[in-house]
Amino acid sequence: MKYKALFQEIKDDYFNTHLKEDIKSTFPEIKMIDLSLGEYYNVSLLYSYMLENIFIEIRLLNVIAFINKALSIGKHETEDVFVIEIFNEAYRHTHLKDLFFKHLKGDALRIFIKQQEFFEEE
Questions:
Q1: Tell me: the pLDDT tens digits for 75-117?
Q2: Which residues have CB under 8 Å from 16's CB, separation 6+?
Q3: Has residue 4 got a pLDDT over 60?
Q4: Distance between CA atoms of 52 and 49, rounded to whole angstroms?
Q5: How confident is the model over 14-71, as pLDDT tens digits?
Q6: What distance in Å separates the CA atoms of residue 28 and residue 24, rounded to the nearest whole number?
Q7: CA 15/CA 106 separation, integer angstroms
Q8: CB of 74 closer than 8 Å to CB of 108
Q9: What is the distance of C-alpha 18 from the center of its chain?
Q10: Which has the closest alpha carbon to 18: 74, 76, 68?
Q11: What is the pTM of this model?
């Protein structure tokens, strides 16, 4: 009997080729960005950046605008990284959660609301 190995092909071109670079070019003030460490690490830095700037609304709005853009371009892998590294953390933080509800748009808002339902079930 012959066996065929099955591999999942990641088809999210934005996640695979542009996400890390877009974070670095959009937020040059985040000095710890390291393109060699992957998307999850670099997106987690965006959440840390939001917490460090919690009272500087323009910086928070810049991150939210970036999330709106990324989630309008990316597919499932991009969605997963933002849910895991930012949204799941933001649900615990009233100020950020309120800002997300107010300023997320389109796919980003839809994903945020959908995932909040799962988060609250836990």
A1: 999 999 999 999 999 999 999 999 999 999 999 999 999 999 8
A2: 10, 77
A3: no
A4: 5
A5: 998 899 999 999 999 999 999 999 999 999 999 999 999 999 999 999 999 999 999 9
A6: 6
A7: 19
A8: no
A9: 13
A10: 74
A11: 0.88
Tokens linked to 84: 């895991």
Burial label, 90 (beta-carbon count in 10 A; 0-12, 13-18, 19+): buried
In one-letter notation, the amino acid at residue 21 is E
For the chain, the DSSP string reads -------PPP--HHHHHTHHHHHHHH-TT-TT--GGG-HHHHHHHHHHHHHHTTT-HHHHHHHHHHHHHHHHH--HHHHHHHIIIIIHHHTT-HHHHHHHHHH--HHHHHHHHHHHHHHHH-
Domain residue limits, the chain: 33-121
